[in-house]
Specification:
mainly beta; 8-stranded antiparallel beta sheet; 41% strand; disordered N terminus
Length: 807
C-alpha cells in the first residue's frame, strides 16, 4: 500500500485558502495513497532542487524558505556592497528564512567556522521578529539602507579584505535553530523540533503556511500527537521550499513522523499511524449485500525496495540515501522495484531507518477494499481501526484501517479500508506474509567496529626553503562491515590528556606540520553511513614519536683563506640544500674550541684590517632546523707585519694586579699559567678593562692585540643538557637527539680598542680581537669580553699584548 500521508482530498497549493475549500468534497478521508504516489514521482526532482541548500543565491525575488528545527542552509544575498578607500570592506545581507526564528548556532565561510577569520569577519543576526529594527551597522556604512526586513530572519556580515584569509568570496552557510512555534501544551511560543508543533504552525500561519484558523483545528489532537512524537523520539528538522504546494509540504512533514490529518465534525485532527485497538466489529449483517469490492495492485505497484532521501545532520547536513530491500521478495520477483521517498524533517539515521522500514512494509501491504454499511458505521472516522468478518475475502475478524467515509442519502456509509498489521509499527522488518527479509549483514544500528592495523610513517616537505616533517597514519578498515562511511581522526598533543577532532578520512590521513620529537596520540573512530559512532572515550589510543629530519647538511668544501695586505678573503663552494639556513664561521682551528665569528648565506666573507699573525677559521653549513654539517672545514692564513712600520712599544698587563675586572678574575691555570677567565661565581659572562698606556706624545700608530686562547668546551652532555628530566619533556621542546647533543655551542671572545688625546675622552673600536686599527692618539687601552656557553665550558686568555707601531 503506498503510504506516508493522510489528508483531506482537496489539494492545497498556497497559503490563505479558505477552510471551505478543504471540505468541499463532502467526505472525510485519508488520501495517503495519492500523496504517496505524488512523492514517488517527484522525489528525484525535489532532491535535485534541494541539493542546493548550501549554495548562496543572489536574487531579490527568491522565495524565502521555512526552517523547522535545526538545519544548516545557505541563504540568499539580497545586498552586497563594498566601502572603504580601497573597497576593502564588503557588506552582505543574507536572508535565511521566514521569521521569527530562534538563533544561529554556527556560521561558516567555505565550511570553516567564521570565528577562524578573526576580526576580518563580523556579523549581526536578526531573528525575523515582526518588529525588528533596521540594521544600524549597515545603515552607518550605507545610509540608503532602510529596510528592517521584518518577519525575515537574516544576518548582516562585514568582510574585511585580507589576502591571507580570503581567496575569493566565501560561500556563507549557517546552522540555524528555526521557527519559533506555538505549543498548546504550555501556551508558549518557542523553538521546537517536535513534528506535531511544526505541522500545527504550518497549518495555522497565514503568511507562509495554509492560514487555517485555529478554531478549525482540534488542539487536543495536536497535544496528543506532540506527546506521541516525544515518546517515539521523532524530530522535525528541515528547510521547506515555499514554492511547493501546501499538499506536498504537509504530506512530506506527515510522512516523516507517521502522521495523518483528517477533517471530521467541522475540525482537523492530527493523528499518528500506530496500531490502535479496534473501535468496531463489522460482519456481513452490517455490510450491504453485493457492495463488497477490492483492488489488488499489479506487480509494478508492489515495491520491494525503498530509497529514503534525507538530510543527515551527523554528516554536515548533506543529502544521503538510505536503501532498504525486501531481499526475499527481490529474489522471488527476480527484479528490484524501488520506491523513492523524500522524508523532509528527518535528519538522523535512526529516524530515517524507522521511516524507510515503515514505508517498505506499508507499501507491501497494499490492498484497498470498499463496501457500504448501514447506520452502525456512521460514527467511524478516517484512521479508525476496525475488524471485518466476511465470506467473500475469507475474513474472520480481519483488522483494517478506515481510509475514507462518505455518508450516502439513504443513511448508509460508504467505507474504504486498507489491511492493517500490528507488525508494521514495531520498527522491525516483518514481511513474512509477502516475502522474507534475510540478511547476514551486521546490524546497521550498532556501533561500527574500529579500524585495525594502525601504522605510522614520516616524510619531510619544504615550504619556502624550510623543511618540516609530517606524519601519515594508515589503517585497515573494519573487515566485513559494509556500512562504513568514513573514519574520524582525533588527535592529542598533550600526552593523551585531551583530544580534538582533526579530520575525516577513509584509509589514511596526513598530519602536518609536526615537530621533531613530538609525541602524537591518535584515536580513530569509525562512522557508519547512518551516522553511528562510538564515544571517543571508549576508543583505543595509539601514539608515535616523531623522528623528524635525520640527515645533516653536507660538509663545506673548497674552503680557502687568502690575504692581501691586511685583508683576508674567505670563500667556499655552495652546498645544494633546499632548507639551507646559511654558513657559520668560527675563529679557531677546531670547531669545538673555536669562537663564533659570523654567519652568512653567501659563499664569501671579507675581513678588512686583519691584525698581523696566523689566523685559522672553521666553517659548517647549517639548515633551518638548526642541524650542522658533520665535519668542519678549516682554512689558515698568515697576515704579515705592515711594511715600513717599526714597533713603538708593546704592553702586557698583569691580570692579577692591573686593570679592572667585571665578573672576571685572574687565574693561575695549572697547564697554561697566568690567565684571565670569567669568575665562576658571577655567571657565564664578564669583561676586563686594561690599564691606560701613554705613548709619550700624540702620534699616528697602528695597533693590534696579540693573545692566546685556551678553550675548555665540554659541549652538551646528558647530565649537563638534560639531567633527570623525563624524555617526554625533552621531546616536547621540539628538539631531536642530534640537536641536543651533536654540536658544541661556541663561546664568545671579543676585544675592543680605545684611544684618546687626553686620557679622559675616549673613542672606541670593536673586534680588536681580529682587526688592527691605525689612529692618531697619545693614550690607548683595550677591553676583553668573555661569554661561556655553559658552566663547564670556559675560555682562558693568556696575558694579552697590545702592539703599537708607527711608520
Amino acid at each position: 500500500m503506498p503510504q506516508a500521508v493522510a489528508l483531506v482530498p482537496a489539494v492545497l497549493y498556497a497559503s490563505g485558502y479558505a477552510v471551505e475549500a478543504l471540505i468541499a468534497a463532502g467526505v472525510a478521508s485519508l488520501i495517503s495513497f495519492a500523496v504517496n504516489q505524488t512523492m514517488q514521482n517527484k522525489a528525484n526532482g525535489d532532491r535535485k532542487s534541494s541539493a542546493g541548500h548550501f549554495l548562496n543565491s543572489k536574487n531579490t525575488q527568491a522565495p524565502i524558505p521555512i526552517i523547522y528545527g535545526t538545519m544548516r542552509v545557505g541563504g540568499n544575498h539580497i545586498y552586497v556592497n563594498a566601502t572603504g578607500d580601497t573597497n576593502e570592506n564588503l557588506h552582505i545581507v543574507q536572508t535565511i528564512s521566514e521569521g521569527e526564528i530562534d538563533s544561529i548556532v554556527s556560521l561558516y565561510g567555505d565550511d570553516k567556522n567564521v570565528t577562524s577569520f578573526g576580526d576580518r569577519f563580523v556579523y549581526e543576526f536578526f531573528n525575523g521578529a515582526a518588529d525588528q529594527e533596521v540594521c544600524a551597522s549597515l545603515q552607518a556604512a550605507d545610509p540608503t539602507w532602510d529596510d528592517p526586513l521584518r518577519n525575515t530572519a537574516y544576518f548582516y556580515a562585514k568582510l574585511i579584505f585580507d589576502p591571507n584569509i580570503y581567496i575569493s568570496l566565501p560561500v556563507l552557510t549557517a546552522t540555524v535553530k528555526g521557527i519559533k512555534v506555538y505549543d498548546p501544551r504550555t501556551s508558549a511560543t518557542a523553538w521546537s523540533d517536535n513534528p506535531a508543533l511544526c505541522i500545527y504552525d504550518f497549518l495555522r500561519n497565514a503568511r507562509y503556511g495554509l492560514g487555517i484558523d485555529s478554531s478549525f483545528i482540534d488542539e487536543q489532537s495536536i497535544e496528543d500527537f506532540a506527546n506521541w512524537c516525544d515518546t517515539m523520539g521523532y524530530k522535525c528538522n528541515c528547510v521547506i521550499n515555499t514554492q511547493e504546494s501546501g499538499l506536498d509540504i504537509v504530506g512530506k512533514l506527515l510522512a516523516s513522523c507517521r502522521g495523518f490529518l483528517v477533517y471530521t465534525d467541522g475540525k482537523f485532527f492530527l493523528r499518528a499511524f500506530d496500531y490502535d485497538s479496534p473501535v468496531m466489529d463489522l460482519t456481513e449483517d452490517d455490510i450491504k449485500e453485493d457492495s463488497f469490492s477490492f483492488t489488488l495492485p499489479g506487480i509494478q505497484d508492489m515495491p520491494n525496495s525503498v530509497r529514503a532521501k534525507f538530510i543527515n545532520s551527523a554528516n554536515k547536513y548533506v543529502y544521503e540515501d538510505l536503501v532498504l530491500n525486501d531481499t526475499g521478495s527481490i529474489t522471488l520477483d527476480g527484479e528490484t522495484r524501488e520506491k523513492v521517498i523524500e522524508i523532509i524533517g528527518v535528519d538522523n539515521y535512526e529516524q530515517a531507518y524507522k521511516m524507510a522500514l515503515y514505508h517498505l512494509e506499508r507499501a507491501r501491504l497494499n490492498r484497498v477494499y470498499s463496501f457500504a454499511c448501514g447506520p452502525k458505521a456512521i460514527p467511524l472516522e478516517p484512521g479508525d481501526v476496525i475488524r471485518v468478518t466476511h465470506t467473500l475475502p475469507g475474513w474472520t475478524l480481519k483488522v483494517c484501517r478506515v481510509l475514507e467515509t462518505q455518508i450516502l442519502n439513504n443513511s448508509e456509509v460508504l467505507l474504504s479500508v486498507a489491511e492493517e498489521d500490528e507488525a508494521i509499527y514495531d520498527d522491525e522488518i516483518n514481511v513474512a506474509s509477502h516475502g522474507t527479509y534475510v540478511t547476514n549483514l551486521p546490524d546497521p544500528l550498532a556501533i561500527p567496529p574500529p579500524p585495525s592495523s594502525v601504522t605510522f610513517s614520516e616524510e619531510n616537505f619544504s615550504i619556502k626553503d624550510n623543511t618540516f616533517p609530517r606524519l601519515k597514519i594508515s589503517w585497515t578498515p573494519p573487515q566485513n562491515y559494509p556500512f562504513l562511511d568514513y573514519v574520524e581522526i582525533w588527535i592529542s598533543r598533550d600526552f593523551g590528556a585531551s583530544y580534538f577532532h582533526y579530520n575525516d578520512a577513509v584509509g589514511s590521513v596526513t598530519i602536518e606540520p609536526v615537530s621533531d620529537g613530538e609525541r602524537v596520540f591518535v584515536k580513530l573512530r569509525s562512522v557508519s553511513t547512518y551516522g553511528r559512532k562510538d564515544d571517543v572515550a571508549n576508543l583505543s589510543s595509539y601514539f608515535y614519536t616523531v623522528t623528524g629530519k635525520t640527515t645533516m647538511p653536507d660538509d663545506v668544501e673548497g674552503f680557502q683563506a687568502t690575504a692581501a695586505g691586511d685583508t683576508v678573503l674567505l670563500r667556499w663552494n655552495e652546498i645544494a640544500l633546499e632548507d639551507l639556513a646559511g654558513y657559520e664561521v668560527r675563529y679557531g682551528s677546531a670547531w669545538g674550541t673555536s669562537l663564533y665569528f659570523g654567519f652568512t648565506k653567501g659563499q664569501t666573507l671579507s675581513i678588512v684590517g686583519a691584525k698581523p699573525g696566523t689566523h685559522s677559521f672553521c666553517i659548517k653549513a647549517k639548515d633551518t632546523l638548526g642541524n650542522y654539517s658533520d665535519g668542519a672545514a678549516v682554512a689558515t692564513v698568515t697576515v704579515f707585519d705592515p711594511p715600513g712600520y717599526v714597533e713603538v712599544e708593546s704592553n702586557t698587563p698583569d691580570y692579577e694586579t692591573e686593570g679592572t675586572h667585571n665578573n672576571t678574575e685572574y687565574y693561575n691555570d695549572p697547564i697554561h699559567g697566568d690567565s684571565l677567565r670569567v669568575d665562576p661565581e658571577s655567571g657565564l659572562s664578564g669583561d676586563y678593562l686594561s690599564p691606560i698606556y701613554d705613548l709619550g706624545s700624540k702620534q699616528k700608530c697602528r695597533h693590534w692585540l696579540d693573545y692566546i686562547l685556551n678553550v675548555n668546551a665540554s659541549g652538551a652532555t646528558w647530565e649537563g643538557g638534560v639531567g633527570d628530566v623525563e624524555w617526554e619533556d625533552v621531546f616536547s621542546a621540539g628538539e631531536t637527539w642530534i640537536q641536543q647533543f651533536s654540536n658544541v655551542q661556541a663561546g664568545t671572545f671579543r676585544a675592543k680598542f680605545f684611544y684618546s688625546d687626553n686620557g679622559t675622552n675616549w673613542n672606541g673600536f670593536d673586534h680588536f680581537e681580529l682587526f688592527c686599527i691605525e689612529v692618531d692618539a697619545r693614550y690607548v687601552r683595550f677591553q676583553i669580553f668573555i661569554s661561556n656557553n655553559d658552566p663547564n665550558s670556559n675560555i682562558y686568555v693568556e696575558p694579552a699584548t697590545i702592539n703599537s707601531w708607527w711608520r
